[in-house]
Amino acid sequence: MDEATVRALNALNRQFYHTTAAHFDRTRARPWAGWERLLPYLAALPRPLHVLDVGCGNGRFGVFLAERLGAENVRYHGVDSAPALLERARAALADVPAQLEQRNVLESPLPEGAYGLVALFGVLHHVPGYAKRRALMRELAARVAPGGLLTLTAWCFYEFVRFRRRIQPWPENLRAEKHDYLLDWQSGPRAVRYCHYVDETEHADLLAATGLEVLETFRADGKSGTLNRYSVLRRPAP
User: Is residue 150 classed as helix, strand or coil in its secondary structure?
Assistant: First the structure.
């Protein structure tokens, strides 16, 4: 994908979250069902658990961790490009040892450091270009401490008719890749976002790019219980 298209799609998604932030926060407060399946993996990690949540949005994964593991056992570092969602995350995580940072990880490097848990939820479909998705996966893996975990999701929206009905035509000035779509937001203010459907073949390739050990891949979330494809990966301890 050419850089002009990448910049245009990143700008489109920044505008999307600026427009929908308030409604997004109201309708995205509950934890994802699939997170419960991660808890046995997290139980074996050292405390306090140092967490990097990339694309943290309103901080609900941090809230989930604090509720399930105890706020005193979590050191949470959330990064997101949307200021309005970060403000909501600050309010939600007021009682949790948390660092929240405005950072667009599609245009600048991830924070430095090594984390026991690196999470990427609801982000991969917004990364424009196959090469950039692979590069992000390698960068995420580099932030995982020895013995630590990387966990991520791919949104399988294209497999559901209700989401395919939201697909909008591409402007002539943008060059899309396979499985790239523009989706209309139909449950709040009118807005359009760029989304990429990561199929099973690409998902496996992105996992391989990390060089980490794949512990499990499973489906969860939504009414069907299959809306997101999760993967849990580990950097072996020395």
Answer: strand
- The alpha-helical segments, DSSP class H, found in the chain are 3-27, 33-36, 39-43, 60-69, 83-92, 130-142, 161-164, 200-210
Q: Which of 3-17, 46-60, 194-208 is predicted least confidently?
A: 3-17
Q: What is the CATH number of the domain that holds 133?
A: 3.40.50.150
> What would the two tokens of residue 92 be?
């939600």
Total domains in the fold of the chain: 1
The CA R_g of the chain, rounded to the nearest whole Å, is 17
- Amino acid 103 reads R
Q: Which residue has the tokens 């072996």?
A: 236
Q: How far is CA 18 from CA 86, 191, 192, in A?
A: 11, 10, 11
Q: Looking at residue 26, what is its pLDDT?
A: 77
What is the amino acid identity at position 78? Answer: G
CB of 89 within 8 A of CB of 59? yes
Boundaries of domain holding 105: 3-157+197-234
Phi/psi of residue 147, nearest 5 degrees: 85, -5
Specify if 191 maps to a domain: no
Which residues are within 8 A (CB) of 19 and not within 5 positions of it... i.e. 6 or more apart? 189, 190, 191
pTM of the model: 0.95
CA 212 to chain centre: 18
